[in-house]
Amino acid sequence: ELSAKLQESLSEEQKSVLKKKIDDLLSKDNLSNAALLAGVANIVADIVGSFVKAKGHDFAFALTSQDGLQKAADFLPDLIILDVQLPDGQGWEVCQKLKDDPRLKNAPILMASGLFRTPQAVAKGLMLGAADYMLKPFKLDLLAAKIEKLLKAHA
Fold it and tell me: pLDDT tens-digit profile of 95-148?
């Protein structure tokens, strides 16, 4: 069930579309650890986390690069959603460190940014090893589709 804060911020249609897409994604039994979000806004973490947890899968959220790297090492997620601009650094460096770690190098990374929106920024993320790049603000149906695609490819 969505939290009260989320219910106020989303239209009924948005909630319905997102719930269906994420329910479809999480109904598959091939997920061991669903997601780690690093630096992404709390509202997105609430949305994804609500559905992931409701389906009985693990979920972690990190606000800073250091916390994200530590949780990734501890959690070994199947998917990482990583903001380019973090309170304590740049997601570019975090992406590189994740890809350099033998335990995490195969976890797909979905980089996200509202500030770095140029083709060069997208190319930089992909060159560093991100599996995909998404511009903020998120379109919820696109976010759900990208999560589904990346988890399927990683399975």
Answer: 999 999 999 999 999 998 888 888 899 999 999 999 999 988 777 778 778 887
Instruction: Note the helical H segments in 10-139.
Output: 12-26, 42-54, 65-75, 91-100, 119-127
pTM: 0.72
Instruction: With CA atoms as reference, report the closest residue to 152 among 79, 83, 46, 55.
Output: 79
Is the model more confident about 92 or about 155?
A: 92
User: What is the Cα–Cα distance from 138 to 71, expressed in whole angstroms?
Assistant: 24
Amino acid identity, residue 66? Q
| Distance (Å, whole) CA 139 – CA 44 | 11
Strands 89-90 and 85-86: antiparallel
Is the dihedral angle over the CA atoms 84, 90, 95, 96 positive or is it negative? positive
